[in-house]
Specification:
Blueprint (H helix, E strand, L loop, with lengths): L2 E2 L1 E4 L4 E4 H22 L8 H20 L3 H27 L2 E3 L2 E4 L6 H30 L9 H40 L2 H40 L4
Parallel strand pairs: 1-5
Antiparallel strand pairs: 2-3, 4-5
Organism: Lactobacillus nasalidis
Pfam families: ATP-synt_A
Membrane topology: Multi-pass membrane protein
Length: about 240
């Protein structure tokens, strides 16, 4: 049974998940390297690398424009959606291709297979939605929106903030965690269970599941960004 590599800060009662920090840092470097490599030698007539970057930007811009009506919010969310999609996509794939264990401790795995990471992303999105809502309507007007279209919906609208946070974060976590657990079971439990026969059977099964997990990781990055834009779009729209 693998253990989490956690660093406790003496005297504070706080603990730091080293695994999440290592994975997130690696993927931040990867995202920077991808963007740097694709954006070098930008030309009026785009080359192949520039076309890839522009396609990614247009793709995430489309998500923003489809779900956020306010032009000012669209302008500020364009870069956020692009970086969020690329960052989560890379995080989702990390554990499929690289897992490092030292003894019983897991050192490197997908950061999004940890609920703390996905909850951090969800909290960031919700805080942005509050910020844009207050900027659009003012503090008083924004708070009054919780009682629209009718006042008795106030408790439901408040509860919805918590459910949005949980569904946004746990959907991503659950899909990535389940994919990595099943891949681990195929490799460490099914493969050695009956010798050479199960090893031969487990190899193509692991490859198929790994390919499927890449697809799921891509879809989940898209879903997370789309729902983030939906939540923010609702905050800047008067019902």
């Amino acid at each position: 049974m693998e253990k989490s590599l956690v660093f406790n800060i003496n005297g504070t009662g706080l603990s730091v998940d080293v695994v999440g920090i290592i994975g997130s840092t690696l993927m931040a470097i990867v995202v920077f390297a991808i963007c740097y490599a694709l954006s070098r030698k930008v030309e009026m007539k785009p080359n192949k690398k520039q076309n890839v970057l522009e396609y990614l930007i247009d793709f995430t811009d489309g998500i923003v424009k489809d779900n956020v009506e306010d032009p000012a919010a669209q302008k500020h969310l364009s870069l956020y959606a692009f970086v969020l999609f690329l960052f989560i996509f890379c995080m989702n794939q990390l554990g499929l291709f690289l897992e490092v264990k030292v003894g019983d401790y897991m050192v490197i795995k997908s950061p999004t297979a940890d609920p703390v990471t996905t909850m951090s992303f969800a909290m960031m999105t919700l805080l942005l939605s509050f910020t844009f809502g207050i900027q659009k309507f003012g503090t008083k007007g924004y708070l009054q929106n919780y009682a629209r279209p009718v006042g008795f919906l106030l408790p439901i609208n408040v509860i919805e903030e918590f459910t949005n946070f949980l569904t946004l974060s746990l959907r991503l976590y659950g899909n990535i965690f389940a994919g990595e657990v099943l891949l681990t079971l195929i490799g460490s439990q099914l493969g050695p269970s009956m010798g050479i026969v199960t090893r031969i059977l487990a190899a193509p099964l692991a490859m198929i599941w790994q390919g499927f997990s890449v697809f799921i990781g891509s879809i989940q990055a898209y879903v997370f960004v789309t729902l983030s834009m939906v939540y923010i779009g609702k905050k800047v729209t008067q019902e």
